[in-house]
Amino acid sequence: MTPSPATTRRAVIAGSLAGLGTASAGCLGRVRNIAGREGSTQMTLDVYTTPADADPHGIRVARHLEEHLRAVGIATRVNTMAEADLYRRVLINQSFDIYIGQFPAHQRIDPDALYPFCHSEFNPEPGWQNPFGITDLTIDDLLEEQRGATPEDRPAVVDDLQREIARQQPFVTVVFPDALTAVQRGRFEGWRRDERVSKPMRLLSLSLSGDDEGASGTGDGETTGDDGSERTEEATAETTTETTAVDGPSADATLRLVTTDPRVAENRNPIAAEYRRDGTYTELLYDSLIRTRGDDRIPWLARDVSWLDEQTVRVSLREATWHDGEPLTAADVAFTYAFLSDTSMGTADAPIPAPRFRGRSTLVTGAEAVDDRTVDVTFADAHPQVGLRALTVPILPEHIWSERTEVAAIAGIEVDEQTTDALVWDNPEPVGSGPLRFVEASPGDRVVFARNDDHFLDRGPEGVPADLRGKPAFDELLLNLVPSDIAAVEHVADRRADATVSNLGPEAVPRIGREADATLVSRQSSAFYHVGFNVRNEPLSNPRFRRAVAGLIDKAHVVDEAFQGYAQPAASPLANADEWLADDLRFDGRDPETPFFGTDGALDVEAAREAFREAGYRYDDEGVLLVREP
Predict the structure, then answer these.
(1) Are 239 and 279 within one domain?
(2) How far is Cα 600 from Cα 344, in angstroms, rounded to an integer?
(3) Using one digit for the tens of pLDDT, what is the confidence trace for 22-61?
(4) Are residues 282 and 327 in the same domain?
(5) 309 three-class SS
(6) Are 102 and 128 found together in one domain?
(7) Which of 59, 67, 106, 206 is the most buried (most CB within 10 A)?
(8) What is the pTM of this model?
């Protein structure tokens, strides 16, 4: 009898699990551990993160972990590098022991976002999908089960999934940081104290001060209706069926933003794994079929979405054009889903998917253009509420990206897996269909975007919330790059910028408080900091070893010392989505699954060493943790 695909996959995974203990490693520390040793050798681990001037939090977490790894007898080196270089090493080359990074999400995540993050299906692929190389059958089964579960049954499955991830610890969820930004309210209204400033939908909903259009901020996270009455964000987001044309900017206006993050000035490829995390500006350049705001799904490029059967939706498109004047058609939508699944479009020996949207693209088994304005999208075996996540990917112009299907290599970087030109292209002059179009960029200096007057928002489309009709309220978005958080705050305080859009360090908060024209905006981010393990190699292939390392991290102490209180410690990657968090994984002073070996940041070294002994490792007479003999 021919085995089923699932049976075959499980057999392959089981075989790989059996061989993990003797796997050799790719980085220098592992070479010292395994190759050419004589007698006992001290265990060595390399920790990778970004430098302090790029992100002060990651390096502080790394130093905290380094101190405690050394205390238990592990030789440890912290290596810093630019964020793009870090993620090339981790996501593409998979050459690391441990890394400190942030989950690539800027708003509350659906549990299905963990599917590409942890499923063994993605183990050999580059990108944010399974960067750890975890191959666990129970995790796989739970990830698949939650996709197809009914809304009533899904929470219990997600609870079990969180518990299994916590037990296996392929990564350590450390903290959910507060996204700190500064705004000055003199020119634009609609900023919210409790919402990330750089959310694309927030930038689009801003109004010029004194305008009557849209909702205006009261400074307390509330909005004001046309009649002056207060109403909540949810009320503002209500959709109506009335089609109303709304005027654009009443006067020439430039939204001036400032950032310390140089990546958008260097790369505007919406599917580049190492350059994209938040995707704020690519989301303003490229439309998707639907957009999400809170729990609401807003029809975007899709004028209407209707179910033909349990697995197929028919999408009717709005009239839209690409920024170069070419019409956007259903063929572009069908191309996008085929392209995200295989950026070589069948020209390579095996499919080369786009890593950044891998999880969502696996929800789609096919997309077919019915006519120029209609496309049918067929979902995999997933509940409809989960499947609709696939409609949030950026739609790409076929006439641009179909020329980027050739197999390529990243200059100067050894890449184990094949990749295509589409995945390494800088996309210097992006052609999207979004409400903003690209004008120019000067690396290290600034990026300029202009209002797309041909966008459907300008026509007050049906189904779009009132506060987005006729938007954006600015003619130009100017993004200036500055070298430091303090410089960013000074730009806002001096009224040279309307807001900072890169996350500020806690050190900048007192400066904001001293500036009369600057206001602090804070909201908990879903981009949780985590310690990622390369479980492909010994000793990190051992879950007991990983749990022992997790116990070296005092998360509450990290919040106080590294984040100065502007973060929340967590034991689950779903900790900031209260409706999904398993009750037994709530952080209540101590981590419920891998509690810190000590108190108030002080490590109980002997208790920690005992955990490593119980994991199967031994110490020499000088307290050095030794590499385990194969």
Answers:
(1) yes
(2) 52
(3) 333 334 344 444 333 345 799 999 999 998 877 889 999 9
(4) no
(5) strand
(6) yes
(7) 206
(8) 0.76
Mean pLDDT of 506-518: 79
Chain segment 82-104, per-residue pLDDT in tens: 887 888 898 878 899 999 999 88
Q: What is the pLDDT of residue 223?
A: 31
- What b/e string do you get for 433-467 counting C-beta neighbours within 10 Å, with b at 16 or more? bbbbbbeebeeeebbebbbbebbbbbbbbbbbbbb
Domain that holds residue 569: 5-169+534-614
CATH number, domain of 380, equals 3.90.76.10
CB atoms within 10 A of CB 567: 23
Same domain? 510 vs 591: no
455 with 588, same domain: the answer is no
pLDDT: is 410 or 602 the higher one? 602
Statement to judge: residues 221 and 109 lie in one domain: no
Per-residue pLDDT, 22: 34
The distance in angstroms from the start CA to the end CA of the chain is 37
For 517-575, the DSSP string reads: T-EEEEEE-S--EEEEE-TTSTTTT-HHHHHHHHTT--HHHHHHHTSTT-EEE-SSTTT
Strands 374-379 and 364-371: antiparallel
* Residues 499 and 596 both lie in one domain: no
Three state DSSP letters for 277-288: CCCHHHHHHCCE
Can you tell me which residue has the tokens 């400074």?
A: 219
Same domain, 276 and 385: no
